Amino acid sequence: MNLLELIHNHSPAFRRQALIPALENAIQSAESEARLLVLCGSLGSGKESTLKSLEKELNQKNEVIAKYFNAETIEADKLASQIRSFWHHTDEERTFLILINNLDDLLRRDDLGQAFFDFERELLTDLVTDGETLIIATSLTELNQWREYEVRTSQVNVQIPPLSHQELDDLVQDTEIGSDHLYQLGLGHPQISQWILRNPEISAREIASRAADYFLESLSLEASRLTLIASQMPLFNAFILGKVSGQAAGEVALLHLMEQINDLMRNGLIFWDEEGSYRFRDSSVRRLIALDLYWQEKDEFKDIHNQATAYFQDEANYPSYLHLHLVSAIYHLARANYERGADIAGQECLRWVEKNVHSWIGADWNLVLQAWKDGAGETAVIEEIIELIGSKHYAQIGDLLIDAQATLEVKR
Predict the structure, then answer these.
(1) What's the CA dihedral at 192, 196, 199, 204 to 10 degrees?
(2) Spatial strand order in the sheet of 36-40
């Protein structure tokens, strides 16, 4: 049995509407047959419940024998010995499915992640090369640090997506809560959605406050504060984060800032993308905690977006990098005008594009238009922009960009 067969034929636990295509694409793109699947997700995204549901459901069938382990609550050497004991001493002629929750916790046991690499070398390599064994693990972050070739080529990461609108429709059945209301407040995050279902009267302000406390619980006060500020920016680098957070200039200050950024990465909140920016792993987490700063300190919220607007608009003056910065420039301009209403915010954004579009000669317009369509790789950003400026202004800006491609594009 392989992972695709397991997903399609053996477990309702994987019947998440948006998860199935992501699983299929990842498994089919593996360098060799995928034997290790890592489900990545934020706190409260359903990682533990998925694994426990798999264990319960699959052990009721004849073809699979499944066992759940939680890496967070077991010493690393004991985890390996417990898994090996299950694997060696079960005589069933069935596929073994080993379920490991919080596998990334091994990376955080020491500064070098030695517990993680020992586990990989001493056990995981044997598991992935056994034709009768499959492993499904969970993690806050993607796991790409593997040292062993056999593990690296047989492992895939899949980000757990937010709940779809259809899944929210199913959740609100037999309640008086509308699925649109549930999405507007909870943004499809499973844990936040449950808060709302349990307390339908909860306000957006209370949700933002509770979400910030929940997602930032493991961070220091300094790192929590930095995360609140970083969450205002769908894309950012160390320079603009340091600027808007008021950190001092200089080499020592930069090193301190990078330590904090690395802390956010280790905790699964952000990652460094291939285009050279930091992003939040879960857009719903970013958006929820960003609102906490708005409710707490509206003046600082606006000041951050004004500073970010100036920075990204300056960066957009370089046509070669327009596709990297256009979406952020418009996003922050819209956010800075948030309280003036969608029509005024939309007019401001449209005027800025009209004023500058003819100077963008030499831009890669295919990439620019793709960025405007998919939020520079994060579709939730386009959803936000449409909420902020309205669908009419969003379409008008798109039309300006299409016209610019026709008149300004340099043939490559």
Answers:
(1) 90
(2) 64-70, 95-101, 133-139, 36-40, 155-159
Report d(CA 97, CA 117) in Å as an integer: 21
Distances (CA, A) of 132 to 2, 80, 98, 259: 9, 18, 11, 42
Please return the burial class of 259, using the count of CB atoms within 10 Å of its CB with bins 0-12, 13-18 and 19+. exposed
Answer for the pair 170, 15: CB distance below 8 angstroms, yes or no. Answer: no
Question: 3-class DSSP state for residue 347?
Answer: helix
Rounded Cα gap, residues 234 and 282, in angstroms: 10
Q: How does pLDDT run across 12-71, given as a tens digit for each residue?
A: 666 666 677 788 888 887 767 889 999 999 999 999 998 998 888 888 877 788 999 999
pLDDT one-digit tens code per residue, 97-156: 999 999 999 998 888 889 999 999 999 999 999 888 999 999 999 999 999 999 999 999
Alpha-helical (H) ranges within 177-297 are: 179-186, 190-198, 204-215, 221-230, 238-244, 251-266, 283-296
Residues 381 and 280: beta-carbon distance below 8 Å: no
- pLDDT tens-place string over residues 271-285: 999 888 999 999 999
DSSP-based helix, strand, coil % in the chain, nearest 5: 60, 10, 30
Residue 241's φ and ψ, nearest 5 degrees, are: -65, -45
Give residue 192's region: left, alpha or beta (phi > 0; psi -120 to 50).
alpha
Helix, strand, or coil (residue 38): strand
Tell which residue, 78, 247, 317, 279, has the closest CA to residue 159: 279
